[in-house]
Design brief:
single chain, about 375 residues, alpha+beta, Multidrug efflux transporter AcrB transmembrane fold, 5 strands
């Protein structure tokens, strides 16, 4: 197999960049909370509960732990662990479980299950399959994905905490950077990428404008979940959560809009390569046809993703058949999910004609103008 030096050098550069990004993601600074350690459950014994009167249904365990990390690595400790009959937060340890614990007054308290190994295994499987089937393009896509995660975790979040009054600006800025990085790294610096970038940014700007109007006219608060309420009450009193809702809507739609835009731009680009004499209107029609083919599945992707996230809420409402439909449809939680899915879908639909016309223009009109200018310059030089 012949090895191209330039491609091999690019591949090594991508691998090095991936390694640096992975290291950065793995060493993000903590939040100042007490340090946590890994531990394995060696034995569990249920004991008499001392707080049953205050929390009916709660349980108490005596748990023997083997500490797997931290200053006390390799030692064992026996702790008392209680549950409060709250399925959302209760942890019922069993022998062999891997847990996360924190130091608490010379003993340990169970924080949560250690889910990181399973998540890393899934991430590794995803990365391997992406590179296996996508080759160099898959490696670039993985690079862009890690860059986007890092940019949101260390860029957008930091900007919001630093200047919470400019969340709209930070969201558009981060979304634009992610779009540029995705298209330029994965598809290269060419006309196809330019058309996809214009279409994506156009669709996202439309979605952002509609999101601002929809949030205002539907009286959404942005505090539709318990976590948001806790953040508002405890940490982010000065943050407008309606702007956070705007950020969530825009970033949630960004991936689907990029997918549609690059599909249209790629189809038009390939068509022009195979038939160089293809005219502007023909390219536009072809792009719109491709957009019609993919918009149904992409719209379904957005709506089904939001429905999947809101499934417990839907079940809760369905379990109360006497609840009036008018009341249900005006719930802040329901209205938020409806607005999310509709705004994302509208942004996706608007990206289709923007991408089709922009790519067709870049492929046909601009090269013709450059050719005419070059011819005119050549004639002027010949006459002089």
């Amino acid at each position: 197999m012949k090895i191209h030096p330039r491609r091999f050098a690019r591949f090594l550069g991508i691998c090095l960049t991936l390694a640096v990004l992975l290291y950065a993601l793995a060493h993000l600074p903590g939040s100042g909370d007490p340090p946590t350690y890994k531990a394995e459950v060696r034995s569990v014994t249920e004991t008499e509960n001392e707080i049953t009167a205050f929390a009916p249904g709660s349980k108490q365990y005596e748990v023997q732990l083997h500490i797997d990390s931290g200053p006390a690595e390799g030692t064992e400790a026996t702790i008392t662990h209680r549950t409060l009959n709250n399925p959302a937060f209760d942890i019922h340890p069993q022998e062999g479980d891997n847990l996360i614990v924190r130091d608490e007054n010379g003993s340990y308290a169970i924080v949560d299950y250690d889910r990181l190994p399973a998540m890393l295994a899934l991430s590794l499987g995803f990365a391997v399959l992406l590179i296996l089937f996508g080759g160099m393009t898959g490696a670039k896509a993985l690079l862009v994905l890690l860059f986007a995660v890092l940019l949101i975790a260390k860029g957008l979040i930091a900007f919001i905490l630093f200047a919470p009054s400019h969340i709209l600006l930070w969201t558009i800025l981060i979304g634009t950077i992610i779009t540029l990085a995705t298209q330029l790294i994965v598809n290269g610096c060419n006309v196809k990428s330019a058309g996809a970038i214009i279409g994506t940014i156009g669709g996202i700007l439309v979605a952002g404008l509609l999101a601002i109007l929809a949030i205002h006219f539907t009286y959404l608060t942005g505090i539709d979940e318990e976590q948001a309420g806790m953040l508002k009450a405890l940490y982010l009193q000065n943050v407008d959560f309606r702007e956070l809702l705007f950020a969530g809507i825009v970033l949630g739609a960004l991936g689907a809009v990029m997918d549609v835009a690059v599909s249209i731009a790629s189809a038009q680009y390939e068509m022009k390569l195979l038939a160089p004499k293809t005219k502007f209107q023909t390219l536009v029609t072809s792009g719109l046809n491709v957009g019609r083919d993919v918009m149904g599945t992409m719209a379904n992707t957005l709506v089904l993703a939001y429905i999947g996230g809101a499934l417990p809420l839907i079940l809760l409402i369905s379990a109360q058949p006497d609840l009036p439909l008018l009341h249900v449809m005006n719930l802040n939680m329901i209205a938020t999910e409806v607005v999310r899915s509709l705004i994302g879908s509208i942004g996706l639909l608007c990206a289709i004609p923007i991408t089709a016309y922009a790519t067709a223009f870049l492929i046909t009109i601009r090269p013709r103008r450059k050719a005419r200018q070059a011819t005119q310059t050549h004639v002027e030089r010949a006459e002089s």
